[in-house]
Automatic annotation (TrEMBL):
<keyword id="KW-0963">Cytoplasm</keyword>
<keyword id="KW-0028">Amino-acid biosynthesis</keyword>
<keyword id="KW-0521">NADP</keyword>
<comment type="subunit">
    <text>Homotetramer.</text>
</comment>
<feature type="binding site">
    <location>
        <position position="136"/>
    </location>
    <ligand>
        <name>(S)-2,3,4,5-tetrahydrodipicolinate</name>
    </ligand>
</feature>
<feature type="domain" description="Dihydrodipicolinate reductase C-terminal">
    <location>
        <begin position="106"/>
        <end position="236"/>
    </location>
</feature>
<dbReference type="GO" id="GO:0019877">
    <property type="term" value="P:diaminopimelate biosynthetic process"/>
</dbReference>
<feature type="active site" description="Proton donor">
    <location>
        <position position="139"/>
    </location>
</feature>
<comment type="function">
    <text>Catalyzes the conversion of 4-hydroxy-tetrahydrodipicolinate (HTPA) to tetrahydrodipicolinate.</text>
</comment>
<feature type="binding site">
    <location>
        <begin position="100"/>
        <end position="103"/>
    </location>
    <ligand>
        <name>NAD(+)</name>
    </ligand>
</feature>
<keyword id="KW-0520">NAD</keyword>
<dbReference type="InterPro" id="IPR022663">
    <property type="entry name" value="DapB_C"/>
</dbReference>
<keyword id="KW-0457">Lysine biosynthesis</keyword>
<comment type="pathway">
    <text>Amino-acid biosynthesis; L-lysine biosynthesis via DAP pathway; (S)-tetrahydrodipicolinate from L-aspartate: step 4/4.</text>
</comment>
<keyword id="KW-0560">Oxidoreductase</keyword>
<dbReference type="Pfam" id="PF01113">
    <property type="entry name" value="DapB_N"/>
</dbReference>
<feature type="binding site">
    <location>
        <begin position="145"/>
        <end position="146"/>
    </location>
    <ligand>
        <name>(S)-2,3,4,5-tetrahydrodipicolinate</name>
    </ligand>
</feature>
Length: 240
């Protein structure tokens, strides 16, 4: 595949290594210094674009990919308040949009485990649920996209919780997410259930960015010949 990398930072560079090791070719690498090269004409040279930039620039980048008719895989977090607008634009242009708050296979298994545990804990209201996420100090958004995905799944299953907050919770119906920024940590997510007599926690800890990058390249391969809104559920169903 010919791949356009929109965002050539920590993730863009790791994705490049993995894509090349899987026989793909990088035909465009965009960062702030050459953002003027991000044109429809240049995007059309690629079979797929992989987008890992910033919360502020992601949506414009998706629109450009839809206009160019190039499938786009994105892992940028912090833009989800505009999700409806993006998905509508994708449908209108008959494009292909694959988004995941976390592309790691391990995290997606962890999402399943989180749902199962939450379903069980719904019946036991002596447990207060909360979360912690730890990331490197360069991260622009808090809480992490992954933490929001975990929280949304808990809110769907645990009926005594109806929202999440990164501030001090005002009531027990608010799920507290503590966002810690520390050194160069690639990403740690912990879901905790605490009662008066015991404590249960589940943790996913990324050892590097390689798992996120491999998932993004697998997603790009999955997009070939497909249209519409795609997610890790579609990809994992195919792999299982
Ligand atoms: N879904 C997932 O699995 C994962 C998601 N992420 C998310 O991916 C995003 C990127 O992370 P990371 O690679 O660590 O961040 P970096 O800051 O290392 O890289 C961001 C890149 O985007 C470029 N960029 C910024 N603004 C623009 C713009 N307007 N046009 C084009 N390029 C631009 C930057 O250019 P320059 O270097 O010149 O500033 C840089 O190359 C974040 O939102 C992060 O949360 C991260 C890991 C996994
Ligand atoms: O910014 C990061 O680094 C990461 N961002 C994603 C998120 O916000 O969940 C995924 C991963 O945790 C690393």
């Amino acid at each position: 595949m010919k791949i356009a990398l929109i965002g050539y930072g920590k993730m863009g560079r790791t994705i490049e290594e993995i894509a090349i090791s899987r026989g793909h070719e990088i035909v465009l690498k965009i960062d702030v210094s050459n953002a003027a090269d991000l044109t429809e004409e240049n995007l059309k040279k690629a079979d797929v674009a992989i987008e890992f930039t910033t919360p502020d620039s992601a949506v414009d980048n998706y629109q450009l990919c839809f206009a160019a008719g190039v499938p786009v895989v994105s892992g940028t977090t912090g833009w989800l308040s505009r999700r409806n607008e993006v998905e509508e634009a994708c449908r209108e242009k008959e494009g292909c949009f694959f988004y995941a708050s976390n592309f790691s296979i391990g995290v997606n298994l962890f999402f399943e485990l989180n749902c199962k545990l939450a379903r069980m804990m719904n019946a036991f209201d002596q447990y207060n649920v909360s979360m912690t996420e730890v990331h490197h100090t360069h991260k622009l958004d808090a809480p992490s996209g992954t933490a929001i995905s975990l929280a949304e799944d808990i809110i769907d299953e645990v009926k005594r919780v109806d929202s999440w907050t990164i501030d001090e919770p005002k009531s027990t119906s608010e799920l507290s997410i503590e966002a810690i920024r520390e050194g160069e940590v690639p990403g740690i997510h912990t879901v905790k259930y605490d009662s008066e007599v015991d404590y249960i926690e589940i943790t996913h800890s990324a050892k590097s960015r390689k798992g996120f990058a491999l998932g993004a390249v697998l997603a790009a391969e999955f997009c070939q010949g497909r249209k519409g809104i795609l997610s890790m559920k579609n990809l994992l169903n195919e792999m299982a």
